[in-house]
Amino acid sequence: MIVTTNRHASQREIVPATQSLARVSSIGARSFLLEAPGDFDLVAQRRIWALSQSVKGWPDLEENIPGMTNLLVIFKETPEDPDAMVARLLEAWENARSIDLKGKTIEIPVHYGGEHATDLPALCDLSGLSDREVVRIHHEATYRVFALGSAPGFGYLHGLDPRIYMPRKTVPSLKMPKGCVTIGGMQTGVAMLTGPNGWNSIGFATLEMFDPTSPTPATMAPGDTVRFLPAGIEL
Amino acid sequence: MIEIIESGPFNTVQDLGRPGYRDIGVSASGAMDPLAVRIGNILVGNDESAAAIEVQTFPFSLRFERRVVFAVTGADGNPHLNGSELLSWCAYLAEPGQVLELKQPPRLARSYISLGGGLDIPVVMGSQSTSLRGGFGGNAGRPLAKGDRIAVGEDAEIAMLPASGIAVVEPAVALRDVFPAAVDGTLPIRALPAGEHDLFAGDGEAFWSQTWRISSRSDRTGYRLSGEPITPTASIEMRSHGVVPGVIQVPPGGEPIVQMSDANTAGGYPKIAGVIECDLWRLGQARIGARLTFVRSTHAEARMVEQAVAGYVEDVRQTSRMVKRALKAMA
Predict the structure, then answer these.
(1) What is the ipTM of this complex?
(2) Which positions 193-232 of A are in contact with B (Cβ < 8 Å)?
(3) pTM confidence score
(4) C-alpha to C-alpha distances, A135 to A48, A125, A159, A201, nearest whole angstrom
């Protein structure tokens, strides 16, 4: 699925393209990406979760990675007939029933504003909202973890209010600190590592959300509910 | 034990990787030239997925504190043991106190040191590979540094190695028919068109026809390529999706990035192509400044290459086992 943006124009330019059929494309020889048609919403994501569950039973499957209304499927071997794999995936998608993962609720204290909120002024300019309104809109919403990726334990959160959508930066911040609470397009999340980051920072959280020595290294899991609690607001 | 005497930055412990955790954002990591690690491990009698030392900044040297079988594979430079030159792609026995030194190889990028018995370090999330981004695995989640000491596992086969060592025909030679050599210094790398290929219209052809150069902003995470920029016909922002090593993404600047061993687990840039897995080790051995072209490939060709590589590895495994058995019987 493609989201068209104009990076320097208003948020109204972020419009999901509509397609009626799921699209499957290949990434290298063993991996196939299925992208759900339609809107970027919980309805599509529930079917992606269902699809992820059903492909887990395939004996020739090595790994499957749920994304944002899409699923990457990695097979153990390069298929002899890639078209048959595409057909199999599309059939599984057609049969995928909506499931809702019963997740836990995670509350993340956030210090909004201050030195780490490097992109809050730009978000105010883009949205036409005051910094107080942006912060209020961000912490009043309830988010769902759609998928994990990009860094160990990083959860992509759905549920951002469209009034504070903000496209990813064309030139990423080179050293955004771990813990920054960020907005990337229609998604929000908490940076898990210090490093280059193209998302827009509006606050800071100190919760540890990844431990490689734990049997469940990532705190977040798809389906979890996330609430941001304003621990401090510095505007 | 071995002790690191000299090391540049970014030399790490790597095995064949940590797949299976991409869905929680953890890169697979693993050696940039996994074929060299497999062969090195077979030579020293390890399981082929045992961890090795990946050397990509030279010179590098270490001291053996006890008798150890070792092999250096990967790059085209020859290692030195206490100053005497040895062959690459060959298993030898080191005595306590001896120093192994690796100098900058003439053309290739990475050498691997495999040790009989393997490296005795913790397995984290199913692998001994260093996750530099996550700061865990390998040598306490960080590159090797002067003064580091690493334990080596017990080696049951140590007595089976002949004094003169055991060598193999290296993959670049044994698999010459399968991996076409560089033409005028330009390495051909096979790839399949990926999701947004058609979005590049005429620039898609420019991607396949031009010679790219590996830029200095390249590392184990990704190779950035310099060349005539290519741009999609529409400005798009993808929903985040899983990615794997070999994916060639095109950021807004128009210069492609090939994801390598420490590949990000998710991305949103348009993808023009994906390198076939069996050609990734050749890319892993290509240095900054090297030139390459992408050759449009097929699933069928990828399978053919995979089968040829599997056949070569199996042949090395069988032969090495046979030779060691015969030598033991004669002893």
Answers:
(1) 0.93
(2) 193, 195, 210, 212-213, 217-218
(3) 0.91
(4) 31, 14, 15, 12
